[in-house]
Specification:
The protein has two domains: 122 residues, no CATH class; 159 residues, no CATH class. Helices cover 47% and strands 6% of the residues. The chain is built from eleven helices and six strands. The longest helix is centred in the middle third of the chain and has 24 residues. It starts with 15 loop residues before the first helix and ends in a 5-residue tail after the last helix.
Length: 324
Protein backbone atom coordinates (compact mmCIF):
# COMPACT_ATOMS: atom_id res chain seq x y z
CA UNK A 1 0.00 0.00 0.00
CA UNK A 2 1.09 3.56 -0.66
CA UNK A 3 -0.47 6.10 1.72
CA UNK A 4 0.72 9.70 2.13
CA UNK A 5 -1.51 10.23 5.19
CA UNK A 6 -1.18 7.16 7.44
CA UNK A 7 -1.80 9.07 10.67
CA UNK A 8 -5.50 8.26 10.83
CA UNK A 9 -7.98 10.15 12.94
CA UNK A 10 -6.75 11.88 16.09
CA UNK A 11 -8.95 11.49 19.17
CA UNK A 12 -8.75 13.48 22.38
CA UNK A 13 -10.92 14.46 25.32
CA UNK A 14 -13.10 17.44 24.44
CA UNK A 15 -13.38 20.27 27.00
CA UNK A 16 -16.92 21.26 27.96
CA UNK A 17 -16.78 24.76 26.35
CA UNK A 18 -15.69 23.24 23.05
CA UNK A 19 -18.31 20.49 23.35
CA UNK A 20 -21.06 23.10 23.67
CA UNK A 21 -19.81 24.84 20.51
CA UNK A 22 -19.88 21.52 18.67
CA UNK A 23 -23.64 21.18 19.11
CA UNK A 24 -24.40 23.47 16.16
CA UNK A 25 -25.23 22.15 12.70
CA UNK A 26 -22.18 23.76 11.05
CA UNK A 27 -19.78 22.23 13.59
CA UNK A 28 -21.32 18.78 13.17
CA UNK A 29 -21.13 19.10 9.36
CA UNK A 30 -17.45 20.03 9.60
CA UNK A 31 -16.69 16.99 11.74
CA UNK A 32 -18.71 14.76 9.41
CA UNK A 33 -16.74 16.00 6.40
CA UNK A 34 -13.47 15.14 8.12
CA UNK A 35 -14.80 11.68 8.94
CA UNK A 36 -15.79 11.02 5.33
CA UNK A 37 -12.40 12.16 4.04
CA UNK A 38 -10.60 9.97 6.57
CA UNK A 39 -12.64 6.90 5.61
CA UNK A 40 -11.95 7.48 1.93
CA UNK A 41 -8.19 7.70 2.46
CA UNK A 42 -7.43 4.33 4.07
CA UNK A 43 -8.77 1.17 5.66
CA UNK A 44 -7.76 1.06 9.34
CA UNK A 45 -7.66 -2.77 9.34
CA UNK A 46 -5.12 -2.78 6.51
CA UNK A 47 -2.93 -0.22 8.26
CA UNK A 48 -2.97 -2.25 11.48
CA UNK A 49 -1.81 -5.34 9.58
CA UNK A 50 0.92 -3.40 7.75
CA UNK A 51 2.32 -2.16 11.07
CA UNK A 52 2.15 -5.56 12.79
CA UNK A 53 5.66 -7.11 12.84
CA UNK A 54 4.13 -10.61 12.81
CA UNK A 55 2.23 -10.02 9.55
CA UNK A 56 4.49 -10.55 6.54
CA UNK A 57 1.95 -10.14 3.73
CA UNK A 58 1.32 -6.40 4.08
CA UNK A 59 3.71 -3.60 3.21
CA UNK A 60 3.19 0.13 3.54
CA UNK A 61 5.10 2.91 1.81
CA UNK A 62 4.52 6.23 3.53
CA UNK A 63 6.43 9.54 3.36
CA UNK A 64 9.40 9.62 5.71
CA UNK A 65 11.94 12.40 6.09
CA UNK A 66 14.94 12.00 8.40
CA UNK A 67 17.67 14.53 8.97
CA UNK A 68 20.08 15.53 11.77
CA UNK A 69 19.06 12.67 14.03
CA UNK A 70 15.33 13.43 13.87
CA UNK A 71 12.58 12.46 11.53
CA UNK A 72 8.92 12.92 10.63
CA UNK A 73 6.49 10.82 8.63
CA UNK A 74 3.16 11.14 6.91
CA UNK A 75 1.77 14.58 6.10
CA UNK A 76 4.52 16.28 8.13
CA UNK A 77 7.19 14.82 5.85
CA UNK A 78 5.82 16.10 2.54
CA UNK A 79 5.71 19.70 1.40
CA UNK A 80 2.25 19.21 -0.12
CA UNK A 81 0.84 18.05 3.22
CA UNK A 82 -0.60 21.44 4.16
CA UNK A 83 -4.22 22.39 3.44
CA UNK A 84 -5.32 18.79 3.87
CA UNK A 85 -2.95 17.55 1.16
CA UNK A 86 -3.72 20.23 -1.45
CA UNK A 87 -0.66 22.36 -0.68
CA UNK A 88 1.01 21.33 -3.92
CA UNK A 89 -1.19 23.80 -5.78
CA UNK A 90 0.52 26.73 -4.04
CA UNK A 91 4.06 26.34 -5.33
CA UNK A 92 5.93 24.11 -7.78
CA UNK A 93 8.83 23.66 -5.36
CA UNK A 94 6.51 21.71 -3.04
CA UNK A 95 5.75 19.20 -5.79
CA UNK A 96 9.41 18.87 -6.79
CA UNK A 97 10.42 18.18 -3.19
CA UNK A 98 7.78 15.48 -2.76
CA UNK A 99 8.59 13.83 -6.09
CA UNK A 100 12.24 13.44 -5.06
CA UNK A 101 11.24 12.32 -1.54
CA UNK A 102 8.98 9.67 -3.05
CA UNK A 103 11.88 8.34 -5.12
CA UNK A 104 14.12 8.27 -2.04
CA UNK A 105 11.53 6.56 0.16
CA UNK A 106 10.77 3.93 -2.49
CA UNK A 107 14.47 3.22 -2.99
CA UNK A 108 15.03 2.68 0.73
CA UNK A 109 11.88 0.56 0.98
CA UNK A 110 13.10 -1.80 -1.74
CA UNK A 111 16.56 -2.01 -0.19
CA UNK A 112 15.71 -2.38 3.48
CA UNK A 113 12.16 -3.63 3.89
CA UNK A 114 10.92 -5.43 0.76
CA UNK A 115 13.44 -8.22 1.27
CA UNK A 116 13.66 -11.95 2.01
CA UNK A 117 15.62 -13.71 4.71
CA UNK A 118 18.59 -15.64 3.21
CA UNK A 119 17.13 -18.88 4.59
CA UNK A 120 13.76 -18.36 2.90
CA UNK A 121 12.97 -21.41 0.69
CA UNK A 122 11.52 -19.09 -1.96
CA UNK A 123 15.11 -18.30 -2.97
CA UNK A 124 15.60 -22.00 -3.82
CA UNK A 125 19.35 -21.86 -3.32
CA UNK A 126 21.05 -25.16 -4.20
CA UNK A 127 22.54 -27.30 -1.46
CA UNK A 128 26.05 -26.25 -0.58
CA UNK A 129 25.73 -22.86 -2.26
CA UNK A 130 27.08 -19.91 -0.37
CA UNK A 131 24.19 -18.17 1.26
CA UNK A 132 24.04 -14.40 1.54
CA UNK A 133 24.53 -12.98 5.01
CA UNK A 134 22.19 -10.02 4.52
CA UNK A 135 18.52 -9.94 3.47
CA UNK A 136 17.98 -10.37 -0.25
CA UNK A 137 15.95 -7.65 -2.04
CA UNK A 138 12.86 -9.01 -3.76
CA UNK A 139 13.19 -6.31 -6.42
CA UNK A 140 16.55 -4.74 -7.27
CA UNK A 141 15.95 -0.98 -7.04
CA UNK A 142 18.92 -0.28 -9.30
CA UNK A 143 20.48 3.15 -9.70
CA UNK A 144 17.75 5.77 -9.47
CA UNK A 145 19.95 8.79 -10.05
CA UNK A 146 22.73 9.14 -12.70
CA UNK A 147 25.45 8.65 -10.05
CA UNK A 148 24.02 5.28 -9.01
CA UNK A 149 23.81 6.22 -5.31
CA UNK A 150 20.88 6.99 -3.02
CA UNK A 151 18.52 9.77 -4.02
CA UNK A 152 19.65 12.85 -2.05
CA UNK A 153 17.41 14.46 0.56
CA UNK A 154 16.26 17.80 -0.79
CA UNK A 155 16.02 20.95 1.32
CA UNK A 156 12.64 21.54 2.97
CA UNK A 157 10.61 23.48 0.40
CA UNK A 158 9.36 26.98 1.19
CA UNK A 159 7.68 29.63 -0.96
CA UNK A 160 8.21 33.37 -1.23
CA UNK A 161 5.62 35.80 0.05
CA UNK A 162 5.18 37.36 -3.40
CA UNK A 163 4.26 33.95 -4.81
CA UNK A 164 1.58 33.50 -2.14
CA UNK A 165 0.21 36.97 -2.84
CA UNK A 166 -0.04 36.03 -6.54
CA UNK A 167 -2.04 32.91 -5.64
CA UNK A 168 -4.51 34.98 -3.61
CA UNK A 169 -4.88 37.49 -6.46
CA UNK A 170 -5.66 34.64 -8.84
CA UNK A 171 -8.24 33.32 -6.39
CA UNK A 172 -9.85 36.74 -6.08
CA UNK A 173 -10.05 37.13 -9.88
CA UNK A 174 -11.65 33.71 -10.21
CA UNK A 175 -14.20 34.48 -7.49
CA UNK A 176 -15.07 37.75 -9.24
CA UNK A 177 -15.75 35.93 -12.50
CA UNK A 178 -17.72 33.17 -10.83
CA UNK A 179 -19.87 35.72 -9.00
CA UNK A 180 -20.58 37.58 -12.24
CA UNK A 181 -21.57 34.37 -14.02
CA UNK A 182 -23.78 33.04 -11.22
CA UNK A 183 -25.54 36.37 -10.65
CA UNK A 184 -26.04 36.68 -14.40
CA UNK A 185 -27.90 33.36 -14.39
CA UNK A 186 -30.66 34.89 -12.24
CA UNK A 187 -32.55 36.04 -15.31
CA UNK A 188 -35.92 35.56 -13.64
CA UNK A 189 -35.19 38.20 -11.00
CA UNK A 190 -35.31 41.97 -11.23
CA UNK A 191 -32.36 44.06 -12.36
CA UNK A 192 -32.32 45.77 -8.97
CA UNK A 193 -31.91 42.49 -7.07
CA UNK A 194 -29.07 41.38 -9.35
CA UNK A 195 -27.41 44.74 -8.80
CA UNK A 196 -27.74 44.43 -5.03
CA UNK A 197 -26.25 40.93 -5.11
CA UNK A 198 -23.34 42.18 -7.21
CA UNK A 199 -22.63 44.95 -4.69
CA UNK A 200 -22.84 42.54 -1.75
CA UNK A 201 -20.50 40.11 -3.48
CA UNK A 202 -17.93 42.55 -4.82
CA UNK A 203 -17.87 45.82 -2.88
CA UNK A 204 -19.17 47.13 0.43
CA UNK A 205 -15.88 48.87 1.14
CA UNK A 206 -13.80 45.72 1.27
CA UNK A 207 -16.41 43.88 3.36
CA UNK A 208 -18.05 42.15 0.39
CA UNK A 209 -18.50 38.38 0.46
CA UNK A 210 -15.78 37.93 -2.16
CA UNK A 211 -13.25 39.75 0.03
CA UNK A 212 -14.32 37.67 3.02
CA UNK A 213 -13.81 34.39 1.15
CA UNK A 214 -10.43 35.51 -0.15
CA UNK A 215 -9.40 36.64 3.33
CA UNK A 216 -10.49 33.36 4.91
CA UNK A 217 -8.49 31.42 2.31
CA UNK A 218 -5.48 33.69 2.86
CA UNK A 219 -5.51 33.12 6.62
CA UNK A 220 -5.80 29.34 6.13
CA UNK A 221 -2.93 29.22 3.64
CA UNK A 222 -0.63 31.53 5.57
CA UNK A 223 -1.33 29.80 8.90
CA UNK A 224 -0.38 26.38 7.53
CA UNK A 225 2.71 27.76 5.82
CA UNK A 226 3.89 29.46 9.02
CA UNK A 227 3.29 26.41 11.22
CA UNK A 228 5.09 24.09 8.79
CA UNK A 229 8.02 26.48 8.14
CA UNK A 230 7.15 26.74 4.44
CA UNK A 231 7.09 30.54 4.11
CA UNK A 232 10.52 32.13 3.70
CA UNK A 233 9.41 35.27 5.48
CA UNK A 234 9.10 33.40 8.77
CA UNK A 235 12.26 31.31 8.74
CA UNK A 236 14.09 31.42 12.06
CA UNK A 237 11.02 31.49 14.32
CA UNK A 238 10.62 28.82 16.96
CA UNK A 239 7.39 26.83 17.23
CA UNK A 240 6.06 28.93 20.09
CA UNK A 241 6.41 32.12 18.05
CA UNK A 242 4.79 30.47 15.03
CA UNK A 243 1.79 29.38 17.09
CA UNK A 244 1.43 32.91 18.49
CA UNK A 245 1.40 34.47 15.02
CA UNK A 246 -1.17 31.96 13.78
CA UNK A 247 -3.29 32.67 16.86
CA UNK A 248 -3.19 36.38 16.07
CA UNK A 249 -4.13 35.68 12.45
CA UNK A 250 -7.09 33.66 13.67
CA UNK A 251 -8.31 36.61 15.75
CA UNK A 252 -9.09 38.50 12.56
CA UNK A 253 -9.30 42.23 13.14
CA UNK A 254 -9.38 41.95 16.93
CA UNK A 255 -6.39 43.63 18.57
CA UNK A 256 -4.93 41.61 21.44
CA UNK A 257 -2.39 42.32 24.16
CA UNK A 258 0.42 39.87 24.86
CA UNK A 259 -1.44 38.40 27.83
CA UNK A 260 -4.72 38.13 25.89
CA UNK A 261 -2.95 36.46 22.97
CA UNK A 262 -1.24 33.98 25.27
CA UNK A 263 -4.58 33.06 26.88
CA UNK A 264 -6.28 32.72 23.50
CA UNK A 265 -3.56 30.50 22.08
CA UNK A 266 -3.45 28.40 25.25
CA UNK A 267 -7.19 27.76 25.01
CA UNK A 268 -6.86 26.82 21.32
CA UNK A 269 -4.06 24.39 22.18
CA UNK A 270 -6.20 22.78 24.88
CA UNK A 271 -8.96 22.25 22.32
CA UNK A 272 -6.53 20.81 19.77
CA UNK A 273 -7.04 23.70 17.33
CA UNK A 274 -3.34 24.69 17.52
CA UNK A 275 -0.30 22.44 17.97
CA UNK A 276 1.39 22.07 21.30
CA UNK A 277 4.32 24.42 21.89
CA UNK A 278 5.86 26.13 24.89
CA UNK A 279 4.63 29.72 25.02
CA UNK A 280 6.88 32.52 26.32
CA UNK A 281 5.80 34.75 29.20
CA UNK A 282 3.75 37.89 28.35
CA UNK A 283 6.81 40.18 28.49
CA UNK A 284 8.68 38.04 25.92
CA UNK A 285 5.55 37.82 23.78
CA UNK A 286 5.16 41.60 23.76
CA UNK A 287 8.82 42.01 22.75
CA UNK A 288 8.29 39.53 19.90
CA UNK A 289 5.11 41.29 18.75
CA UNK A 290 6.86 44.66 18.77
CA UNK A 291 9.60 43.22 16.55
CA UNK A 292 7.00 41.89 14.10
CA UNK A 293 5.22 45.27 14.24
CA UNK A 294 8.48 46.98 13.30
CA UNK A 295 8.78 44.51 10.44
CA UNK A 296 5.38 45.69 9.20
CA UNK A 297 3.25 42.54 9.41
CA UNK A 298 1.26 43.68 12.47
CA UNK A 299 -0.75 46.79 13.19
CA UNK A 300 -1.18 48.59 16.51
CA UNK A 301 -4.16 50.69 17.46
CA UNK A 302 -3.57 54.37 18.25
CA UNK A 303 -5.10 53.95 21.69
CA UNK A 304 -2.56 51.28 22.57
CA UNK A 305 0.39 53.57 21.81
CA UNK A 306 0.03 55.11 25.27
CA UNK A 307 -1.57 52.21 27.15
CA UNK A 308 -1.34 48.45 27.00
CA UNK A 309 0.10 47.46 23.62
CA UNK A 310 -2.44 45.61 21.49
CA UNK A 311 -1.75 44.17 18.06
CA UNK A 312 -3.68 42.72 15.17
CA UNK A 313 -2.43 40.97 12.06
CA UNK A 314 -2.29 42.79 8.73
CA UNK A 315 -3.04 39.93 6.34
CA UNK A 316 -1.86 41.67 3.17
CA UNK A 317 1.49 42.56 4.70
CA UNK A 318 1.83 39.26 6.52
CA UNK A 319 1.38 37.36 3.25
CA UNK A 320 4.26 39.13 1.49
CA UNK A 321 6.55 39.30 4.54
CA UNK A 322 10.16 39.31 3.40
CA UNK A 323 13.00 37.32 4.88
CA UNK A 324 14.02 37.94 8.45
Amino acid sequence: MVDPFPEGAQFAAVPVPMLLRMLGLSAVAGKLLGTLVGQARFKPAELVQAQDPDVHSRFLITPSRSQDGGGVSGAKAISCGLLGGFGGFLDESFRLHDFALGQRNCQWFLKRHFVLDPANPVLALPEGAERPVVPVPIIDPGPVDPCGGPVPLHDWAAMEGDALAAVLKQLDRRLKRLGKVEIGKLTGTSWLLRRVLAVVWNRLGGWGLRAQVTGFAGVAMLSDLILRDQHRGYRGLDMGQRVLLVGLLGAGGTALSAAELRARVGAAQAEGALPEATLPDPAAIEKFLLAEWDRGILRRSLASLVGTARFRADLDRAVVAGGR
